[in-house]
């Protein structure tokens, strides 16, 4: 789907366009911990707290969709100790999220490849989606075991299966149909991408969906990204003249 409609909101005395859909590459947990002479997994734990906070802050600002990059298909290359710590953190986060999400009327979806994840985590993901399916507030998407190229390959395979079954033909395939086979089916493309920690690349995150998104890069490490940081990103977004391939 194309980028969504923006909404005017008064924020700290400023009238700002609030993006409908914000995507975030949450980077810098390890560096945050290293600066404090703490284990990397302590940084991931603090990053999880920042994740809880940004959901609340997005809801307060009127952002309707939030998609975060939690664990990529490439992150399996990290040390066994770090990956084990992250998976244990996921387990706790997924369980705690059910009550927290229902209390805030937040709908949660998990995107990415479930094959390869521990079975108990997949079960918790299914339960979280099931228990929050009826919520009508912020739509929160967590990318776990996600890679953008992998998502596109999986979409192509599903299209080919449907074509072989006679459900679609080659002439049916266009951008709109292709988007229906992606993990983000039915969700407007992000208006704004935020990446923390000073890195300036998309790292295989939502390559199809970010085609016309605005990019905001900040040196702030993810555990320190708070409401003021989010408002600053929205201010930056308001300075951009959005173009979708047309000349103005």
From TrEMBL:
What this protein needs as a cofactor is:
Mg(2+)
InterPro entries linked to this entry = UPP_synth-like (IPR001441), UPP_synth-like_CS (IPR018520), UPP_synth-like_sf (IPR036424)
GO biological process per UniProt: polyprenol biosynthetic process
Residue positions annotated to bind Mg(2+) are 27, 214
Q: Could you give the cofactor binding note from the entry?
A: Binds 2 magnesium ions per subunit.
Where, in this chain's numbering, is substrate bound? 28-32, 40, 44, 72-74, 76, 78, 195, 201-203
- Quote the catalytic residue positions: 27, 75 (proton acceptor)
One Pfam family cited in the UniProt record for this chain: Prenyltransf
UniProt superkingdom: Bacteria
Keywords tagged on the record: Magnesium, Metal-binding, Transferase
Q: What is its EC number?
A: 2.5.1.-
Which Gene Ontology molecular-function terms are recorded? ditrans,polycis-polyprenyl diphosphate synthase [(2E,6E)-farnesyl diphosphate specific] activity; magnesium ion binding
What is the purpose of this protein? Catalyzes the condensation of isopentenyl diphosphate (IPP) with allylic pyrophosphates generating different type of terpenoids.
User: What family classification does the UniProt entry report for this protein?
Assistant: Belongs to the UPP synthase family.
Q: How does it assemble?
A: Homodimer.
Protein name as annotated: Isoprenyl transferase
